[in-house]
Structure formats: structure tokens, C-alpha cells
Amino acid sequence: xxxxxxxxxxxxxxxxxxxxKEKIIAIVGYGNQGRAQSLNLRDSGLDIIIGLPQKSESKxxxxxxxxxxxxxxxxxxxxDLISVLAPDHLHSKIYQKQIKPYLCPGxxxxxxxxxxVHFKLVDPPDFVDVVMVAxxxxxxxxxxxxxxxxxxxxxxxxxxxxxxxxxxKALAYAKGIGCTKAGAFETTFEHEAIGDLFGEQAVLCGGxxxxxxxxxxxxxxxxxxxxxxxxxxxxxxxxxxxTIKAHGIAGMFDRISQTAEFGSYLSGKxxxxxxxxxxxxxxxxxxxxxxxxxxxKRECQRGLKTYLxxxxxxxxxxxxxxxxxxxxxxx
Length: 331
Ligand SMILES: NC(=O)c1ccc[n+]([C@@H]2O[C@H](COP(=O)([O-])OP(=O)(O)OC[C@H]3O[C@@H](n4cnc5c(N)ncnc54)[C@H](OP(=O)(O)O)[C@@H]3O)[C@@H](O)[C@H]2O)c1
What we know:
This protein has a nine-stranded mixed beta sheet with strand order 1-9-8-7-6-5-2-3-4. Strand 2, helix 1 and strand 3 form a beta-alpha-beta unit. The relative contact order is 0.10. By secondary structure, it is of the alpha/beta class. It has two domains: about 180 residues, NAD(P)-binding Rossmann-like Domain (Rossmann fold); about 130 residues, N-(1-d-carboxylethyl)-l-norvaline Dehydrogenase, domain 2 (Orthogonal Bundle), CATH 1.10.1040.10. The protein is about 55% helix and about 10% strand. NADP nicotinamide-adenine-dinucleotide phosphate binds next to helix 1, strand 3, helix 4 and strand 7.
């Protein structure tokens, strides 16, 4: 382990909504994050408009929710703070054509991840504030918890502070969407972008799904019925993860049987070996040096062929059928 870095956590008392009062917040995109953040910000008393393409499928939903919907260009022109909540892989195109030409001094650009700024898919001019507020949950959860008077944590960062108020605006925005109720962690665009990609690829989504599938395949090859293998390798995951979140990994071990605990100490390290860690380091290097982003850009330019093939293969894996049957049975 190298040096330990500490980051500060900001809560409601550190954030003041006044820094966004009497300002127009233009939300670009009304999907997973766009809808939840718009609703939360409006409920916090802020002035929201939505920017969407003319033929957007999200337009009707935003209008039904009572928002004024404009073209992306018009929303950027009218907005004091432009919150870019369109999908990351479209940022470059949307930014060049529909955002950049309409920016002027005094405006703030806000991103919900460090991805496109850190990897230079967008190049904000030197006369706008550039900040990030990245909630640590899907939009639906951000909205649900807000309605319960709670919030999800977020990362926030300032990349460019021209007005001297960038940090206060980012914190006000985090408060407006409910995140300072749980805690806003100060970070950098780089750390958020790298950490987010690595976490999802190596551990949370990529690593975990391969671990689950491998375990399932081994049990099925050994003759166990797929449903049985599914129950053993998937069904209790949420319980284990919630216990780890609440009590730590060591605390989780305190709460399972001693047989399970002893076996885990012995076998876990046989499955995740020093070689696995070397592979993880390679994944991290390829994220840091831009290899992954280059690959993803090429994939998008070529019509997502490989992505769609891999998606189809994932859907066709036998674990999906077993899962469906178990979910039906346990309804
Ligand atoms: N999803 C998460 O859990 C999560 C968590 C934290 C941060 N984030 C970040 O939040 C941002 C948004 O992600 P998301 O998952 O919310 O995306 P998403 O659900 O895919 O939302 C896409 C929205 O962008 C709209 N859009 C597409 N092109 C547009 C354009 N030219 N102008 C304006 N709007 C346009 C889409 O409209 P149509 O309906 O017409 O397609 C749709 O409303 C990303 O930066 C992501 O990294 C996401």
C-alpha cells in the first residue's frame, strides 16, 4: 500500500442553496440522473429548465413532470449553470455542437462524472466554472431517498474556478439534490473518473459478474442443477454485501458460521490470487493511460458491434435462465 490520502466530507451545514437561487439551472438530458436531479432541485426551491433534442423520447416525461423543455442549445443559452446529464459516450458530440458555442463568461458547467473532462472528450473554455457533482447511486434511489428526507452520498470536485464561487455552487447543487444529507466527498475529476471506471470494471460489475458465472459453471459442471448453483452463488449476495457495508469485511466474517469463515480464509485467496491482482493493475493502467477510453470511442464510432455481441452473449448465459426460474418461484 502506498500513501494514504484523506478527503473531507461536506454535509448540509457546509452548503448553502443561496448560491444557486435566482439562477437558472439547465439540465441537459432527462434520463436516469436527469429526471431525479431535476425533481430534487425543483423541490429544493431552485429554478430548473430542461434541454433535450427535438425528437427526444424523454420530452413527454419531462413535460408531464411539469418542466419547461427547450432545445439543448436554447437551454444552454438560458442557463446560468448547465448540468450535463446526457450519457458519457455522447458528451463529446453534444458538447461540441450544442453546448460549447453557447457558453459565455459567468456560466458554470457541471458534470455528474469526471469521465469526459478528465479524458478530454470535452474542452471547457477558460472563462466558465467547471465542477462535478457525482451521486453515488442511480437516479431512482437519489429521488426515493430525497422524498424520505434522506440523501445518497456524492463525490464533488472543482476543475476550474473563474468566479471564485465554483465550490460553493457545486456544494449548493449537491445540497439541492439531497447529497449533503448523506455526505459530499471532495475529490478531483481524475480520481473520480479513474476510480469509477476501475471499480465498475474490476470489482463491482465486471469482476463480480465473472466470479459469479465462474462459480455457477463449476457447480453445474460438477452435476448440480442450475437452480441449485444459482441459489448458492447469487441468491445471498445482497445479504453478504449489506453485511459488509454495515459491519466491514471482518464484521461479515463475524456473522457467518465458523465453517464458512474458515473455508473462506482458505479458499478466497486461491481464487483471487496475486496473478489476479496483477491483472487488476493492468486494467488500472489501461484506464489511466487512456487505452480503455480510446477503445470505447472506437467501439462507439463503429456502431457498437462488439459491445452488442458481448451483451447478447451475457444474456444467453445459462445462469440467466436459472435466475429467471428462481425469481418466478420465489415471487
Ligand atoms: N446512471 C447512473 O447510475 C449514474 C450515477 C452517477 C452519475 N451518472 C452520470 O450521469 C450522467 C447521465 O447518465 P444517465 O445514466 O442519467 O444517462 P441516461 O439515463 O442514458 O440519460 C440520457 C438522457 O440524455 C438525453 N440526451 C441524449 N442526447 C441528448 C442531447 N443531444 N441533448 C440533451 N439530452 C440528450 C436522452 O434523451 P432521449 O430520451 O432522447 O434518449 C436521455 O434523456 C453521466 O455523466 C453519468 O456518468 C450516472
